[in-house]
Structure formats: C-alpha cells, structure tokens
C-alpha cells in the first residue's frame, strides 16, 4: 500500500512507506505532514499513517550472553590510558594549587564561578529534558524500557533515567547531573534502527550508553583525571578506549555480534543499506587502510575510533568474550 502526501496544498505521490519514513529521518518531511492511503480519502498525520501500516517491532529479548566476569568487558588498554591521564593530571593539579595559594585564594573564586555556571547549565538542560523529551518507563515506550531493564540487569546496575528526544541526528549520550544518571537517545538513531532493525540492535545502542555509567566514565575519580587533558593525545587516546569499552558493553547487552555490527552500520550507511552491507568486506576495508599514514594521523586527533575500526573491534571482542 502506497501513500499520498500534501505539501504546500499540493498532493503528491503515491510513495512507498519506507521512502517516506526515510525522508522523515533525514529531516526532509515533518511527521505532521498530511497523508492519505492510496485510494483512500481520510487525511491524517503522516506519522500516524506510517504507524498504522508498519507493525511494532517484535518484543524479542536480546540473546542471553554467556556467563563471564563483567570486568572483561572493559577494553584492555582503557586503564593504561587512564593511568597516563592521571599522571598528566598531577602537574596540572599542583600548578593549580600553587596558583591558588599565590593568588591568595582569588583564583578559587574564579573556579567556583566557573563550576557554578557549569552546574546551572546542567540543571537548565535537565529541565529541558524533563519537559521536552519522553522518559522511558514500564508504562511509556514499554518495549524500549524492557531493553533498558534487561541490559541493566545483565550489567548489575541500577537503571538510569532514559529519555528519547526529537533530533534528526544519529546519536545518543550518557550524562550525570549530581547523582542522577541519565541516558538520552536521539530520535534520529531510534527511528533509523527501528526502520529496518530490531530490538537486539537497539540493545547495542542502549548498552553502549549504559557502558559509560557502568565503567565509571562520568564519576568523580575520572573527572579528576580530566586535568590531564592538556596532554591532548593522551586525553584523546583515553576517549577512544572508553568508546571501545562501551562498544563491548553494548555487544554484551545485545548478546549478538551481527546485531551489534548492524547497529553500527546503521550509523555508518543509514537504515536502508545497513542490512545489505557485507560485514566481512567492510572489516577487510579497514584492514586495508588502517596502516596508512593519514589514517593513523587522523586517529590521533579523534575522540572516537573510526567506524570501520569499531566494526572490526566488535568482531575480535565477540571472539574473545564468546559471543556469537
């Protein structure tokens, strides 16, 4: 069944539902665009019609992962990178202490003001989330909540507050405001995965962000290490290793290598092509280029590993952890 739409009072179409969903994802169409089934006469919001035509994703539980020590989920080089970041932080903290003493405490007022501005900014954003995003609960988006709950149970952690907010960017992030842990999922990532993917792939995305909380990336001890950020290459190295840890956590939560790689490919080539990518060839592409000078040079200045590198790392992690 195809769909007609109205734009600027002009009827166009009919179009395939998948094409229109992709246009919404890309930001080219509004969810409120008037739409009508081919041969029909009732005009409703496009998003409403798409939901009627497309069944909800099956509520299939992610594959149970093998029994293993959760400490093995942490990337082998993350702690080494963190140690070097702490080493770099020592002279920075000493210099700050000397500066505060020599300045008779005046620099402390400046630091306190900066800290206050950061806190106000975080509270401001938290207020934005509470009133503009939807919090995932057992009664609100229950399928997604089930994925979150199962992932937290597997990681042995308390569920953070999880929000979904409209933003046509393939992204998600974890944050911590005072003691309140949060995960924010952009609709661009959620829509793209659910367009052609499944809840196993969603478990990888959710698990990746939960990984930041599970691994302590947002806790006070690691905040102290940020003073070593002046040594930019160590700071970026640590950032990349953190992301690889979270990829491994996502893999564990999904319980499936293929689902995890498909979720990553969704972020790479989009929803329509993700399941058509030859994963082995994509990994081979990374192996062909990984030793090139500009690839290595670009890596030095990247906060995240290259996407094809992450694809390859997922494969080696699955082999190491015994996840099929």
How does this model look, in words?
- About 60% of the residues lie in helices and about 10% in strands.
- It is built from 14 helices and eight strands.
- By secondary structure, it is an alpha+beta fold.
- A hairpin with a 2-residue loop joins strand 1 (about 5) and strand 2 (about 10-15).
- It folds into two domains: about 5-55, 2-Layer Sandwich (Dna Ligase, domain 1), CATH 3.30.1490; about 70-265, 2-Layer Sandwich (Zincin-like), CATH 3.30.2010.
Which secondary structure elements does this structure contain, and how are they paired or packed?
Elements: E1 3-7, E2 10-15, H1 17-25, E3 34-37, E4 44-45, H2 46-53, H3 78-102, H4 106-132, E5 134-135, H5 142-155, E6 161-165, E7 172-177, E8 180-186, H6 187-196, H7 199-214, H8 220-225, H9 232-254, H10 257-269, H11 271-274, H12 279-289, H13 293-300, H14 307-321
Parallel strand pairs: 6-8
Antiparallel strand pairs: 1-2, 1-3, 3-4, 5-6, 7-8
């Amino acid at each position: 069944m195809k769909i007609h739409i109205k734009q600027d009072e002009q009827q166009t179409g009919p179009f395939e539902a998948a094409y229109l969903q992709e246009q919404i994802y890309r930001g080219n169409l509004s969810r409120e665009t008037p739409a009508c089934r081919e041969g029909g006469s009732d005009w409703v919001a496009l998003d409403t019609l798409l939901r009627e035509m497309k069944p909800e994703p099956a509520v299939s539980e992610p594959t149970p992962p093998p029994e293993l020590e959760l400490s093995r989920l942490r990337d082998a080089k993350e702690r080494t990178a963190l140690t070097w970041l702490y080493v770099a932080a020592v002279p920075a903290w000493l210099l700050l202490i000397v500066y505060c003493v020599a300045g008779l405490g005046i620099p402390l007022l400046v630091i306190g003001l900066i800290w206050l501005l950061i806190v106000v900014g975080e509270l401001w954003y938290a207020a934005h989330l509470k009133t503009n995003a939807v919090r995932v609960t057992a009664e609100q988006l229950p399928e997604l909540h089930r994925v979150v709950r199962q992932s937290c149970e597997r990681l042995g952690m308390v569920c953070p507050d999880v929000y979904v907010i409209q933003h046509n960017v393939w992204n998600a992030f974890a944050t911590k405001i005072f003691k309140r842990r949060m995960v924010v999922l952009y609709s661009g990532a959620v829509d793209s995965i659910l367009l052609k993917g499944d809840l196993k792939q969603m478990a990888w995305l959710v698990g990746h962000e939960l990984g930041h909380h599970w691994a302590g990336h947002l806790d006070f001890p690691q905040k102290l290490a940020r003073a070593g950020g002046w040594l930019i290459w160590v700071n970026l190295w640590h950032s990349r290793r953190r992301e690889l840890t979270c990829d491994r956590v996502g893999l564990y939560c999904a319980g499936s290598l293929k689902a995890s790689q498909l979720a990553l490919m969704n972020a790479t080539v989009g929803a329509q092509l993700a399941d058509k990518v030859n994963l082995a060839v994509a990994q081979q592409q990374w192996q062909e280029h990984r030793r090139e000078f500009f690839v290595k040079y670009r890596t030095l200045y990247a906060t995240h590993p290259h996407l094809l590198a992450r694809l390859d790392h997922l494969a080696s992690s699955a082999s190491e952890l015994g996840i099929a």
